[in-house]
Amino acid sequence: MARLKTLKPRLPELGRQVKAHGWAETRRELPDARGYDQKWRRVIRPAILDRDFGLCQNCRRSGKLTAGNIVDHIVSKEVWKRAHDGRLDGCDDPSNLETTCGPCHKAKTGAEAALARREGSPVLGPIR
Ligand SMILES: [Zn+2]
User: Fold this and answer.
1) Are 97 and 73 a contacting pair, CB within 8 Å?
2) Which residues surround ligand 1, an ion (CB under 5 A)?
3) pLDDT band for position 35 (50/70/90)?
4) Could you list the residue range(s) of the whole structural domain that residue 86 is in?
5) Are 71 and 105 a contacting pair, CB within 8 Å?
6) Given CB 3.0 to 4.6 Å as the disulfide criterion, which of 51, 100, 122, 128 pairs with 104?
């Protein structure tokens, strides 16, 4: 956990970098408000990384072994909410989570954002 201590002071700076590079939802909330709370960080995320042996599952499906440290919702929270009357119950179930690497996660979230823009989603708007 020592790495977290060194990362923490940099978090506001990382937030500014995300804004500066334009890849952010228009109504981005704080991590806890979006459901990435202590249970996510201490229980759910480590369990999924362990289960997937820290390997990107998307790369694995194409026969590549790539280290991953991002736990991704297979069905994104926005799509899940739309399909379940606005509720997130079950969205954090292990069956809807998998480990991904940075490039795979970026490609997937980029595709999701593009789709949301095409569909005129009120949640994901144009990148500012
Ligand atoms: Zn990958």
Assistant:
1) yes
2) 56, 58-59, 66, 101, 104
3) confident
4) 37-122
5) no
6) 100
pLDDT tens-digit series, residues 6-34: 555 555 665 555 555 555 445 667 777 77
Does residue 127 sit within a domain? no
The rounded distance, in Å, linking the Cα atoms of 118 and 2 is 42
Ligand 1 center to residue 95 CA distance, Å? 18
Q: Which two tokens stand for residue 73?
A: 């919702």
Per-residue confidence at 117, pLDDT binned at 50, 70, 90? confident
Could you tell me if residue 83 is inside a domain? yes
In a domain, 10, yes or no: no
CA 31 to chain centre: 11
Q: How far is the CA of 19 from the centre of ligand 1 (A)?
A: 24
CA–centroid distance, 18 to ligand 1, in Å, is: 21
Whole-number Å distance, alpha carbon 62 to ligand 1 midpoint, is 9
